[in-house]
Specification:
The protein is an alpha/beta fold and 398 residues long. The protein contains 16 helices and 8 strands. The two termini are 40 Å apart. This is Glycosyl transferase. InterPro entries: Nucleotide-diphossugar_trans (IPR029044).
């Protein structure tokens, strides 16, 4: 998406189609002599057996500027899952480690933390990422942590190079980099971003025009992207949510813990394709409805923690304003799709925004019943204060 547009609060790093992978990797090899990179790959047993994972492993073989690769294997109760993962990543050599989060060693370490009052009992991507960060923190030479999903159908390592280069280049001083991209095949995807998050943030900016956090979120072109990189310091100090609020919760922690001038987003310049969640319009505890509710409650709780008072009137106004704003977005998407020759189901899109509007009310009820919610996983500074040797033992458990 080559353009020059810069958002107000954060830096946007575009792909202007003027540099190639070889040039970027040459810069990365030089830069990572002083600033080593650790890559986190959270994967489930089912994703590990899917075709995209094999392609990702093959591509990463050429990314020799990455010092350490940590594959965190979750939703994998059988040892055969672990052994198969080891075989699949064997081509990456000794720099690739597999953290089996369902294995007896890591589970025993989780139990130790839980007994000490540190809540790590909720399995999922959040805990897998948090565990991998702990593993990497045990190596003082790793300065940059990068993360991407493992279900990317059209993966090539250009994605990784564009994610890492803003963080390691000696002429730059960013602490956090978030990816963005266009999710398009023969139609537009990214329904939660397009039909919920974008109009929601526009509505919130009208209701709370002076709130910097809402404005910060609105500066990201794809705030729910699963790809980001960050400094060692942020990996140590950020808390990590364990539900679908992971991406928004991560941005909330970045907003809290670093200067906005040290935050950027990078255009991966690709038509990003991965597996799609079911809409689950009639089941609020599954699919996109569950995702939407978790995202909304994360936003509500973050606003409340900043002193914003969220009463019944606020939620009524938000729902009404969201619907009007989302309807305007649909008109815009329909025009964009028509000019670009994409299939566009306007009725289906209208149905989705109606369902997302009900999630605004559902999330409000969840928020009122439990304003604090499930506690985020504490940062690694707290864990290391309680258990100074924990990260070293975590490495031994791998």
């Amino acid at each position: 998406m080559p353009d020059f547009f810069q958002h107000e609060l954060i830096t946007t790093i575009h792909d202007l189609r003027t540099g190639g992978l070889d040039q970027m990797e040459e810069m990365l090899v030089a830069a990572t002599q002083e600033s080593k990179v650790g890559l986190v790959l959270p994967v489930t047993a089912s994703d590990m057996r899917a075709e995209p994972f094999d392609k990702i492993v093959a591509e990463l073989a050429g990314a020799d500027y990455v010092d350490t690769i940590v594959v965190t294997l979750g939703v994998a109760p059988d040892e055969s899952d672990y052994q198969e993962t080891l075989q699949k990543v064997a081509s990456l050599g000794s720099r690739c480690k597999v953290l089996w989060t369902d294995g007896p060693k890591v589970q025993g370490m989780y139990d130790e933390l839980i007994d000490a009052g540190i809540p790590v009992n909720t399995p999922g991507k959040g805990r897998s990422v948090w565990t991998a960060f702990g593993y990497l923190l045990a190596d003082p030479s790793i300065e940059v942590f990068a993360l991407h999903d493992c279900d990317i159908v059209d993966y090539d390592r250009t994605l990784l190079s564009r994610l890492c280069l803003p963080m390691v280049h000696p002429a730059l001083d960013f602490e956090f980099c978030k990816a963005y991209y266009a999710r398009v095949t023969d139609r537009m995807h990214g329904r939660v971003v397009r039909l919920l998050v974008a109009p929601l943030l526009r509505a919130l900016m009208k209701i709370y025009p002076s709130n910097r956090f809402v404005h910060f979120l609105a500066n990201f072109r794809y705030p729910l992207s699963g790809e980001f990189s960050l400094t060692r310091n942020l990996a140590r100090t950020n808390r990590i949510p364990s539900d679908w609020g992971l991406e928004v919760g991560t941005l909330a922690e970045v907003f809290r813990n670093t200067s906005l001038k040290r935050v950027c987003q990078a255009d991966l310049c690709r038509l990003y394709e991965h597996k799609h969640q079911d809409a689950s319009l009639h089941n609020k505890q599954a699919g996109l409805m569950k995702m939407a509710t978790d995202i909304l409650t994360t936003i509500y709780r973050t606003l409340a923690s900043q002193g914003v008072i969220l009463g019944d009137g606020a939620f009524i106004t938000l729902r009404s304003l969201f619907l009007r704003t989302a309807q305007d977005c649909i008109r815009q998407y329909a025009a964009d799709a028509r000019v670009n020759g994409l299939d566009y189901d306007r009725h289906g899109e209208e149905t989705m925004i109606d369902a997302f509007a009900t999630c605004i009310t559902t999330a409000a009820e969840v928020f009122r019943a439990d304003p604090n919610g499930a506690e985020a996983i504490p940062n690694w500074s707290r864990v290391r204060a309680a258990f100074p040797d924990f990260v070293d033992r975590l490495r031994d458990a791998t």
